[in-house]
Amino acid sequence: MRRFLRPGHDPVRERLKRDLFQFNKTVEHGFPHQPSALGYSPFLRLMAIGMRSGAIKLYGAPGVEFVGLHEENNTVMQIHFIPDQCQLVTLLDDNSLHLWSLKQHSGASELQEEHRFTLKGPPGSPPSATQITAVLPHSSREVLYLGTESGSIFVVELPSFRVLEDRTITSEAVLQRVSEDHCNRRSCELVEALREHPKNPDQILIGYSRGLIVLWDLQNNKATHHFLGSQQLENLYWQRDGSKFISCHYDGSYTQWPVSSDNRQPQPLENLVPYGPFPCKAISKIYWQTTKNGVPYIIFQGGMPRASYGDRHSISVVHGSQQTAFDFTSRVIDFFIIFSSEPTAEFDDPSAMVVLAEEELVVIDLKTAGWPAVHPPYLASLHCSAITCSHHVSNIPLKLWERIISAGSKQNIHYSNMPWPIDGGTNIAPDPPQRDLLLTGHEDGTVRFWDASGVCLHLLYKLSTVRVFLTDADPNDNMNTLGEDEWPPLRKVGTFDPYSDDPRLGIQKIYLCKYSGYLAVAGTAGQVLVMELNDEDAEHVVDHAEADLLQDQEGYRWKGHEKLKTRDGPVRFEAGFQPFVLVQCQPPAVVTSLALHSEWKLVAFGTSHGFGLFDHQQKRLVFVKCTLHPSDQLALEGPLSRVKSLKKSLRQSFRRIRRSRVSSRKRRGGSGNASEVQEANAKFDQDTLQEMELAPVQRKIEARSAEDSFTGFVRTLYFADTFLRDSSRHCPSLWAGTNGGTVYAFCLRVPPAERRMDEPVRAEQAKEIQLMHRAPVVGILVLDGRSTPLPEPLEVAHDLSKSPDMQGSHQLLVVSEEQFKVFTLPKVSSKLKLKLTALEGCRVRKVTVANFGSCKTDDYSENDLAVLTNLGDIQIISLPFLKLQIRYPCIRKEDVSGIASCVFTKYGQGFYLISPSEFERFSLSTKWLVGPRCVVDMPEVTSNNHVHSKPSMENAARKS
Amino acid sequence: EFRRFSLERSKPGKFEEFYGLLQHVHKIPNVDVLVGYTDVHGDLLPINNDDNYHKAVSTANPLLRIFIQRKEDADYSAFGTDTMTRKKNVLSNVLRPDNHKKKPHIVISMPQDFRPVSSIIDVDILPETHRRVRLYKYGTDKPLGFYIRDGSSVRVTPHGLEKVPGIFISRLVPGGLAQSTGLLAVNDEVLEVNGIEVSGKSLDQVTDMMIANSRNLIITVRPANQRNNVVRNSRTSGSSGQSTESSLPSSTPNILANFLQGEEESDEEDIIIEDSGEPQQIPKAAPTSDSLESLTQIELLHDSTQNGFLPSSEMNLNHSAGSVSMEYEVQEPDHKSLEEDGTIITL
């Protein structure tokens, strides 16, 4: 009757399960999707990024990370740190303000939302009266000044968000003071910028969008100066000493204004259109940074000539005669300058520029000649080119790790050596338990090697396979090589370039042997490359072999893409992984599975037509096996051939058009309009809903048959040294599983090492198993006599694993999308099974063996299967008895790309894409958790500076 | 020729013995014969196994009329569940097989030529508004042939009537298995698939469950048309099937649940080809302590509840796709006969 016991009736096992398994989403790696706001605290040296989703993320020194999420899930429009506090205020697009603080809790800091507030106008006033356009946290830390669309400036107290109505600066009050006849009421509409005087906290500069700028005295509640700009205002910036300020304008100009006590209505000192004389785009933000040598840095966003460069996303840095317009491949959200924040310092002395573009973070070193970029330790743009696959390798030997880092460092010479300038907070997380690599394959034919050991996913090395092939991309097309007299002096920065020159280059499968340094990479056009790690540059010929997977099946015509053309003759490869063999599958269909055995020096690959085995030592094809069902026309012909890739110039012009359409205006349109749109949307939704009810979605219920499409699609390949033929002799074997539920096993004869080059590797089909439920085979695994999965190649040789038990009988585990089945070996008889789909209606998407250690005792660990289903659930299934241990919901089932992108590690962690640019890291283990743990302390503040003398003054003022 | 002899009603013995007795009585030891009897309704029914033999003996009132035909010139059409009207002709048909009727009647083949394609099961444990239908996809070329959709049904809850989402049959493919059984209809609500409730599951999940169970699919439905419901302990006719007069040990829901989850082991054994040899069915490894043997028993009992047989022109049981499976099934006759033996045919 044991089988009638429901799982979970064994209290001992239940307790053990609690010690072994635990589900946590630990950290998000990569670049946040759809960033919408940027903030920086020079005091905390922390940067904050707001997202369209309503999330905010804080970053400091590597490993210092905080995440917060606004309940409303509305776009974060602005982020402002409260001066000299561990607090920040966010403004969302629903016009609500939120106060967040970093609080210490059991030794680590946490980001918490403290208060929320929505500004309310007097009854009957239009919504624009309280629509916040500018936020100024006053250096007193006690009040916020809120500029609105109506032109009024409200004052709210912190942290209570109480409106101090008597201190509101209405446009009427401003106009009274500005007694000029051309200052009509409209000139005070919409507060564009609010800036506190750098030396005198009782003065704030108010910029209205129509060009009027007023210096307001808070003590006496009157305008001391006003400045009449003729152009629509975009932004304001005070010079450090408070004697001048800069305004920048919609027409691409900026103006310097003097502030002196004798002239109440000064004329501009300088008015300049840097990229004139033709009409220019707006300069939306400007910095004027003083330096010791007197030559200032003028840094501004935008201002490009409208007609020819209006589509560029640029930030220009002007320093004396040096001028560079940094050209970003995606829209600039915001930027800030890191400069000396010591109040006693005489000059700004800028050190770095931090730019948040829509798709990446770029930091420019302003101290080093040539203004090189700084390699960010986090916020890596995973999606520089779209991710097509990922592969995780745990516990990398130190030797290989160092070699990869050294290869990567040679690629990074153009980066600045500057230490990461945003270095607030302290990382108190324990050191990562081991060195882990995450390899991502990309659409442009590159493989990126990421340090996935800790909280910061850091790029170590980038491998490109493009060099092996001839593509229509012009290798000399370098946007950075611009002539001396080129104007504007554009310089492309950043790595985000999602436009692949040839989709056939895309990487589909990666397999790295961490012991030997062999890497196999396979791509969209049936190309399989085997590479070896070389510490030096080298020039050599890549051997080329073809694998005709259709064999003698005649009369078929492949209608998909052609294979990639290879480069003739020797090719120069930089230090790192260098290809030495290219196996080209014919037809050149996408490679769907790949396995490498570095000890036997064999690589196996499969497509929708069949699979093959290649001996990369002798550079000889051992065999191919066609798995195609003759009637499977779809697989034969390949995907419908698409329009040939456009020429690059054409592509780029498309790019520009598309980008320029993305309006970068920071304010929303009229709110009335928006509600209309919403209404229309709602109506549309309802209509479609009704339509759906009329014609409901139907699903056909039909058993799978051998004639279904893509049954020959090879889903998994596996090398094993096991008992395939008889129970006395084990031999190398290759296993392949197809979409149609067939498992093929080939017995391999690999010559001993001393005759490895002399005798050919032989293969012979030994078994063919047809699963009657015909579901795709997604995993094959051999368990040894102790029911432990066989070790990886070379694992035993490197003393990192016990040698497998070759005495007891081996078992074969076949995982299909629907069932788990254990068979005996060498005589195949079915032993156990778990019918997942029949019972739960879910299907296996990913499966890996993971080792789980107990958090209570160091000496207990076990191997289980970690399974991700099509519903986004993660299940842990015990080995070898196939009992469901635990289930966690992980990914939304609608998030198909998230589910498809998931990779498990060998120690019960995993990664999946939550957006094209972000991996979520999760852990199923109680023992292996990699998450941020950090502290942000209030830095010691030097006394007797003006900032800290102020609060008392402010208080005194209020009391009086 | 007529013979009259007596049998002990309480101990009828086995069919084999009875068959031997008949051959002995008629002195036709080596002649294959068909045995039939007239039941209380006057239908001519076959006797070819223990169960229908026992049934025949137990219903004898007090006389049991048995007809014997030589197998080679037997008129299969004589058997059937036709109504009383045909009864009058039964005798003449049997006595004068060459006397053809003007109107050709439906030809019904012999029970051993039948194979189950569907059945209504668990009538005794389900509410009368529900119907549990088993479809035997195995060994037929016929597609299952139905579609399901999302929908909503009204349930009685503590808060009154509530609309809840449900899964419904949306379409039957003409000529498909589902349609040919007549047991499923468009707009029937699907409640369970092989013993697992579908409530709370998405359409795709239910689709996957059905396809995963497609070789032995058991669907519990609430028929849209509640007028054709099986009424217990009364006869219904036609292909909609009927409940047997439950001479079977009624299965408890407990066993049922285990049975459904334990699943048929026999219905989908995988195939292996060793060294490019002949395809063979993969045997089960030596049973471990928690073997499924007890379940096999239960399974057989359940098999015995099946009825609703349809004639098939195919004499073989093996029609799953590909020559591979054809061969293995021929090689494994024992296995198939196991399944066949478990059935009682009550027509």
Automatic annotation (TrEMBL), chain A:
Keyword Phosphoprotein: yes
Amino acid composition bias (Basic residues), ranges on this chain: 657-669
WD repeat positions: 69-110, 433-451
Gene Ontology BP term (one): establishment of spindle orientation
Keywords: Cell cycle, Cell division, Cytoplasm, Exocytosis, Phosphoprotein, Repeat, WD repeat
Chain residue ranges for the region called Disordered: 657-682
Family: Belongs to the WD repeat L(2)GL family.
Oligomer and partners: Interacts with GPSM2/LGN, PRKCI/aPKC and PARD6B/Par-6. The complex is enhanced during mitosis. Interacts with DCAF1.
Function (record text): Part of a complex with GPSM2/LGN, PRKCI/aPKC and PARD6B/Par-6, which may ensure the correct organization and orientation of bipolar spindles for normal cell division. This complex plays roles in the initial phase of the establishment of epithelial cell polarity.
Protein name: LLGL scribble cell polarity complex component 2
From TrEMBL, chain B:
Keyword Cell cycle: yes
Domain of life per record: Eukaryota
One GO term (biological process): cell division
Subcellular location: Cell junction, Tight junction; Cell membrane; Cytoplasm
Keyword vocabulary terms for this entry: Cell cycle, Cell division, Cell junction, Cell membrane, Cytoplasm, Membrane, Tight junction
Residue ranges annotated for the PB1 domain, each copy included: 1-71
Region (Disordered): 228-254
Record Gene3D superfamilies: 2.30.42.10, Phosphatidylinositol 3-kinase Catalytic Subunit, Chain A, domain 1
A single Gene Ontology CC term: cell cortex
SMART domains hit by this protein: PB1, PDZ
PROSITE patterns linked: PB1, PDZ
Record flagged with keyword Ligase: no
Biased composition (Low complexity): 234-252
Segments forming domain PDZ: 132-225
Family classification: Belongs to the PAR6 family.
Descriptive protein name: PAR6B protein
